[in-house]
Amino acid sequence: MTVKSxxxxxxxxxxxxxxxxxxxxxxxxxxxxxxxxxxxxxISLVELEIPLLDDLSEPDFEKTKNLxxxxxxxxxxxxxxxxxxxxxxxxxxxxxxxxxxxxFQVLHLSSLETALQHGPSLxxxxxxxxxTDDEFRERGGLLQTSRFFKSVT
Length: 153
Fold this sequence. Notes:
Blueprint: H1 3-16, H2 34-37, E1 41-47, H3 58-70, E2 73-78, H4 87-98, E3 103-108, H5 112-128, E4 135-139, E5 142-145
Parallel strand pairs: 1-2, 2-3, 3-4
Antiparallel strand pairs: 4-5
Helix pairs in contact: 1-5
């Protein structure tokens, strides 16, 4: 699987949901002010195959910082259980505390093998849902979220 094939499948899934999308490679992403990002949902596939945040270069740090400061909704998707890809969990929790208006969601796909099969439709549904949950995992094509329920027994 490549990020490009996932991105194409995701764009098709978004189109089926009636959503317009534009794919922009990470290296070309440039967000300088809130006006550019106002009302937009950003879906990051930058960690779909390889970690970025565990060894962030200065240009990537600046790009990440500008994205977090200026966008309203960010859905970060990764395709592995590699611990290096879990850095986004801490980043998202911190960013939600720092930027109250930011809706920052994270989706961990179970593997690259199943990512293309289930990922695009799950990402499409998450990006358009009104859920208040922020952290998700995919297992066997099913979406899971972390919640604790008090035992009734």
